[in-house]
């Protein structure tokens, strides 16, 4: 079987660890091209990462019939536009999170994806790693008893990078979009039923752009949750699941390849466990290939992204901030 040939839409910093390096270790894939708006930038990036071909526009790459799929690591406000363009070009799509600028755009993309017959997947890489299935298995086992609360946090600091695109309102930036989507999606994975936003508070880094946010949620069975995020605090991440008979704390629920540990404390004592340190991105790429080759369902498809984007929109409303909007052409 021939390898899945993947092109990258954008000479992005995330692409080497999210796709290019995992693809080198995956016998079923190869990254064959990269596009940037500046051909010199594309050529330099291609040379640095041993990518055979470079294009001076995204449209040029999408028109190439020798490319089967694309990875979209562009700024948030461009995700919807280029996912739609990729579908129109009959390419499978692995789109960075968040899937779109807001839920309305996500719905438009999901509707097109549903009729396309193509794989369109949001890149929540941690969902495909055993770090997530370990937590869902513990919950399902009943070891913790009925779940009362789920709390997750993901924070880091880029306060010294005021020109970073993640701070750009025009590019649909903000801490919730960039990093808070991870805790929200994890709560959806771990809870019973879809949560709803109860309240949210934000600290603005610049007007209407959140530097940090704390979101309170409630599940249909009455369990509660919090999702916290920041791009202005020291690095931290965790997930805590509290049940009637005990708790589970995950030290690295989003980047377990950097080291991970679970501490499970119940009425019978405390145990410590861990899972593989293999990259989450390797698991994600295998899931993407399986979906393309065999039709294996993915947990972060386009329709799933609508639910996550709806929570993001609701959190912005609750915090008194405007919804993010697609970047204008």
TrEMBL record:
Residues 4-123 form the Gfo/Idh/MocA-like oxidoreductase N-terminal domain. Gene3D superfamilies: Dihydrodipicolinate Reductase, domain 2 (3.30.360.10), NAD(P)-binding Rossmann-like Domain (3.40.50.720). One of its GO terms (molecular function) is nucleotide binding. Residues 136-248 form the GFO/IDH/MocA-like oxidoreductase domain. InterPro entries: Gfo/Idh/MocA-like_OxRdtase_N, Gfo/Idh/MocA_domain, GFO_IDH_MocA-like_dom, NAD(P)-bd_dom_sf. It comes from the Bacteria. Keywords: NAD, Oxidoreductase. SUPFAM superfamilies: Glyceraldehyde-3-phosphate dehydrogenase-like, C-terminal domain, NAD(P)-binding Rossmann-fold domains. Belongs to the Gfo/Idh/MocA family. This is Putative dehydrogenase. It comes from Paramicrobacterium agarici.
């Amino acid at each position: 079987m021939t390898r899945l040939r993947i092109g990258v839409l954008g000479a992005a910093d995330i692409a080497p660890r999210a796709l290019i390096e995992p693809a080198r270790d995956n016998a079923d894939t190869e990254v064959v091209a990269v596009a940037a708006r500046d051909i010199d930038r594309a050529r330099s990036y291609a040379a640095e990462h041993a990518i055979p071909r470079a294009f001076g526009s995204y449209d040029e790459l999408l028109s190439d019939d020798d490319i089967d799929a694309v990875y979209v690591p562009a700024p948030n406000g461009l995700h919807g536009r280029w996912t739609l363009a990729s579908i129109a070009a009959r390419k499978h799509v692995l789109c960075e999170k968040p899937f779109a600028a807001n839920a309305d755009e996500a719905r438009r993309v999901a509707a097109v994806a549903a009729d396309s017959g193509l794989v369109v997947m949001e890149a929540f890489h941690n969902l495909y790693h055993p770090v997530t299935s370990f937590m869902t298995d513990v919950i399902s086992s009943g070891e913790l008893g009925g779940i009362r609360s789920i709390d997750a946090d993901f924070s880091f600091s880029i306060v010294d990078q005021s020109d970073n695109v993640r701070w750009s309102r025009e590019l649909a930036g903000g801490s919730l979009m960039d990093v808070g989507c991870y805790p929200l999606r994890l709560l959806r994975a771990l809870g019973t039923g879809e949560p709803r936003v109860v309240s949210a508070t934000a600290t603005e880094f610049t007007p209407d752009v959140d530097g940090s946010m704390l979101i309170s949620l409630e599940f249909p069975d009455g369990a509660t949750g919090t999702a916290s995020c920041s791009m202005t605090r020291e690095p931290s991440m965790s997930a805590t699941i509290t049940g009637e008979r005990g708790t589970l704390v995950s030290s690295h629920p989003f980047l377990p390849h950097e080291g991970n540990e679970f501490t499970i404390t119940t009425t019978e004592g405390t145990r410590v466990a861990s899972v593989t340190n293999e990259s989450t991105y390797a698991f994600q790429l295998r899931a993407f290939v399986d979906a393309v080759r065999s039709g294996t369902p993915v947990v972060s498809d386009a329709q799933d992204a609508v639910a996550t984007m709806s929570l993001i929109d609701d959190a912005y409303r609750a915090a008194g901030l405007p919804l993010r909007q697609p970047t204008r052409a």
